[in-house]
Amino acid sequence: MLQLDDLRFLLVVIDVLIVAFIIYRVYLLLRRTRAIQLLIGFGLILLLDLMAERLSFETLSWLIKSVSSYLVFGIIVLLQPELRRMVIEIGNMRLFRWLQPPRSVPLTEICEAVKIMAQDRTGSIIVILRDIRAQSIIDSAVKLDSLISRELLLTIFHKDTALHDGAVVIEANRIVAASCYLPLSSARILKKTYGARHRAAMGISEETDAIVIVVSEETGKIAILVNGEMKTPVKHMELQATVARLLKAEEKEISAILRGERT
């Protein structure tokens, strides 16, 4: 039988492990986004507050305590996408997967269209949504709600059409929007040779869990971007298998898939 002290110790260990797990998941979620800079700034303010108390800086301590409640509220507002994504990831854990019906994406149609666009050097961005919907981007674009076909994708990105400038957003088996303007990334992993198309693709991959396929207009090379990481060039023979694996992958498996490793 467990003694009372042993039980208390066990509860403390479980408590610490839960908190450590939450902190680790938050770090994984935010490390590639601009939100991490915000949290670092907030942490520095907390350290400054501790220093002010130790050194009896009463005015500085009063100032920090006066604005601390507003800072917490501001962080919650600014980190809404990341917080929503973290809650979704908890719901996507293997423990809860049986509650969710499978989502089918017609990858053959998408990959065939990408192959043709790569051969013709037709610049394009295809965003395949997973769990985070990016509603503000969809609302500001041209809504389509169309079944996916290679012919439709090729028509949208043809240089003489009105919708070719921007990205296409796909959700399950439908194209939900076209001519979507995405947030540009300032990530250092992007070389200066990459233009606005790749920076836009990186931007949406940093802010959502979408799988983004890019075809370069200059080189015809195919790139895949997920969670702020990029794999390029991607051979069109490997494209469908790679995207299929990414659609089923958990966050910890994505880096290995992009590196071409077995998971």
What does this entry look like structurally?
- With 263 residues, the chain is of the alpha+beta class.
- 53% of the residues lie in helices and 14% in strands.
- It has ten helices and seven strands.
- Strands 2-4-3-1-5-6-7 form a seven-stranded mixed sheet, with helices on both faces.
- A hairpin with a 2-residue loop joins strand 3 and strand 4.
- Helix 2 (35-54) runs antiparallel to helix 3 (58-78), helix 5 runs parallel beside helix 7 and helix 5 (107-120) runs antiparallel to helix 9 (236-248).
- The two termini are 42 Å apart.
- 28% of the residues are buried.
Main sheet overview: 7 strands, mixed
Q: How widely separated are the two ends?
A: 42 Å
Ranges where pLDDT stays below 50 over 5 or more residues in a row are none
> What's the overall geometry?
elongated
Structural class, from helix and strand content?
Answer: alpha+beta
Strand order of the largest sheet: 2-4-3-1-5-6-7
Strand content: 5-15%
SSE run: HHHHHEHEHEEHEEEHH
Proportion of residues in helical segments? 40-55%
Counted beta strands: 7
Q: Which helices and strands occur, and which strands form pairs?
A:
Blueprint: H1 4-30, H2 35-54, H3 58-78, H4 80-91, H5 107-120, E1 124-128, H6 135-139, E2 142-147, H7 150-157, E3 167-171, E4 174-180, H8 196-207, E5 211-215, E6 222-226, E7 229-231, H9 236-248, H10 251-258
Parallel strand pairs: 1-3
Antiparallel strand pairs: 1-5, 2-4, 3-4, 5-6, 6-7
Helix pairs in contact: 2-3, 5-7, 5-9
